[in-house]
């Protein structure tokens, strides 16, 4: 397979060329942007069981990480401050390392069944304050640390992406079995997956066991 060779004559390389392609921004899309968490933004966050956090390293390498827990797991400390528990993961620590190097973050909050989303931008820091971590415990297990986000920008995002994708429509759900398991995908693309089907199934079962033991 050969990659598409783009004609450089059609490259959009500056903001003036970009904006020339579009109608002016609707006034409401500008004024909706707030610098603190209003009543509705706070309620949206309390209802949300899932969000994605975007970070960047000091070299500008971008990363987006999903975060999920029961609704309300992101604590609204006040109208300008959020606290997010860091649950057990793969210990790559991409998000956390990036925050230390570059505190600017972007959050996208989702609520199952809602087509609109909430976007929050700000500057993050890390803490292992015992009092805060105790308030975030699940099954008597405390997170090792929490991400604190000082909010600088908040706004609701329209439903077009979710309407186009029909993300929440059951008749558009895809069968997970149509693709290999997570472990097999990783092995296929790295060291190679075992040929023996029983061995592969055992690895998949071990992953499920690990999920059950290490969610918190």
TrEMBL record:
Taxonomic superkingdom: Bacteria
Domain called Pyridoxamine 5'-phosphate oxidase N-terminal: residue spans: 38-146
SUPFAM superfamilies attached to this UniProt entry: FMN-binding split barrel
InterPro entries, A to Z: Pyridox_Oxase_FMN-dep (IPR024029), Pyridox_Oxase_N (IPR011576), Split_barrel_FMN-bd (IPR012349)
Pfam families, alphabetized: PNPOx_N
Gene3D superfamilies linked: Electron Transport, Fmn-binding Protein, Chain A (2.30.110.10)
Record NCBIfam families: PPOX_FMN_DR2398
PANTHER family: FAD-BINDING, PUTATIVE (AFU_ORTHOLOGUE AFUA_6G07600)-RELATED
Descriptive protein name: Pyridoxamine 5'-phosphate oxidase family protein
Source organism of the structure: Rhizobium aouanii
């Amino acid at each position: 397979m050969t990659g598409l060779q783009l004609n450089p004559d059609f490259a959009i390389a500056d903001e003036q060329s970009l904006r020339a392609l579009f109608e002016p921004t609707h006034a409401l899309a500008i004024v909706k942007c707030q610098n603190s968490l209003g009543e509705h933004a706070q309620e949206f966050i309390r209802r949300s069981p899932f969000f994605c956090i975007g970070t960047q390293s000091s070299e500008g390498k971008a990363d987006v990480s999903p975060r999920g827990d029961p609704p309300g797991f992101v604590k609204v400390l006040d109208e300008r401050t959020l606290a997010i528990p860091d649950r057990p993961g793969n210990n790559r620590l991409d998000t956390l390392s990036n925050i230390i190097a570059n505190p600017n973050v972007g959050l996208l909050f989702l609520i199952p069944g809602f087509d609109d989303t909430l976007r929050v931008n700000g500057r993050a820091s890390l803490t292992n304050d015992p009092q805060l971590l105790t308030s975030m415990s699940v099954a008597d297990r405390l997170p090792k640390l929490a991400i604190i986000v000082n909010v600088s920008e908040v706004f609701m995002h329209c439903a077009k992406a979710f309407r186009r994708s029909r993300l929440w429509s059951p008749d558009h759900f895809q069968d997970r079995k149509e693709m290999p398991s997570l472990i097999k995908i990783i092995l296929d693309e790295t060291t190679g997956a075992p040929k023996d089907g029983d061995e592969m199934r055992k690895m998949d079962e071990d992953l499920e066991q690990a999920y059950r033991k290490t969610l918190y």
